[in-house]
Amino acid sequence: MSSMNPTPKMSIVMVDGSFRESYHAIDFFCQQDLPPDEYELIWVEYYDKVNPALAAEVAKYPNARIITLGRTGVYHSSYCFNAGIAASRGELVLIPDADLVAEPDMLRAVWDMHQTDDRLVMYLFRYEEQEELHQAVPTLGHLQRVCTMKSPSNFGACLTVRKRWLEAINGYEQHDVFGTGFHANGQDINTRFKNLGLPVMWHPRIKLYHPWHPFTKAADDAYRRQEVVIRYRSVNLLTDAYEGLDPARNRAMPADLVEKLAERERRLASDKGQPTPTNPTSDTFIQRLKQAITILIKTKR
Asked: Over the range 167-179, which residues count as b (16 or more CB within 10 Å of their CB) and which as e?
């Protein structure tokens, strides 16, 4: 359903590739102590089918809606992030992990903090439920009791920033190097915001809670490739995605960055005793990467 207000203050963007195990986050984010016409929730599905359970959950809230991208092949989260940003109608955009539990005053606290500085980029801390303490149906009280901080710099937990700054950096990176469900997009975005000169902070009070599920701690070679791009941007003070929100601003990766990726790929292959590729952005490399990610996503499901 569409939002009651065509211009809400805040837009919450959650992304999916038909792999979510639960939709509890919708309840917690749509039952905030603000009037519902002050914010909207946009759930972005990479493929074309919507799980009936998801549709039923979203239908409960007039300020929540689903966008389907109708894409095929291996899931690429950046397309979902960018579609949600483009569709958002709020001045302020929140991009949380789509399986979190939030306290009812979270949105109010986020909005209030952003009134102190229009240029603010703010992250929220994520607290983790341990497997041995896992409760099948997430409740706020249980998670408040058992969750602990495991990663004080989890950039993917929840980003909050004004929409215009996401547009200024051309959104999330859609290049194939970032084309996995296991991504360092949060760190990449943070690097580019800092290069733009924006102030970055972590809210000292707000807590988000993450129920345990399999693959909570997943790792992949994709991270190592993406770190090469992030480091390059950091050193060269670059801000824009090579393939992002605005196709008119897209451009090819610089040759020296392509060579750095090739060197990283050679090291990865050498560590595994495999033949060493020469071009990590070639069709052969991308196909091999997509095959590996397909296996990981199928295992996660």
From this structure: bbbbbbbbbbbbb
3-state secondary structure of 98: coil
Report how far apart, in Å, the C-alpha atoms of 290 and of each of 101, 175, 176 are: 31, 13, 9
Structural tokens at position 22:
């639960």
The helix/strand count (H/E) of the chain reads as 10, 9
Contact criterion met (CB below 8 Å) for 176 and 95 = no
Strand partners, 12: 41, 94
Distance CA 58, CA 55 (A): 5
Q: Kindly list the domain boundaries of the chain, sorted by start residue.
A: 1-301
Q: Are 110 and 92 in contact (CB under 8 A)?
A: yes
What's the predicted TM-score (pTM) here?
0.88
Q: pLDDT tens digits for the chain (301 residues)? A: 444 688 999 999 999 999 998 999 999 999 999 999 999 999 999 999 999 999 999 999 999 999 999 999 999 999 999 999 999 999 999 999 999 999 999 999 999 999 999 999 999 999 999 999 999 899 999 999 999 999 898 999 999 999 999 999 999 999 999 987 677 999 999 999 999 999 999 999 999 999 998 765 545 788 889 999 999 999 999 999 999 999 999 999 999 999 999 999 898 888 777 665 555 555 545 554 545 444 444 434 4
Q: What architecture is domain 1-301?
A: Alpha-Beta Complex (3.90)
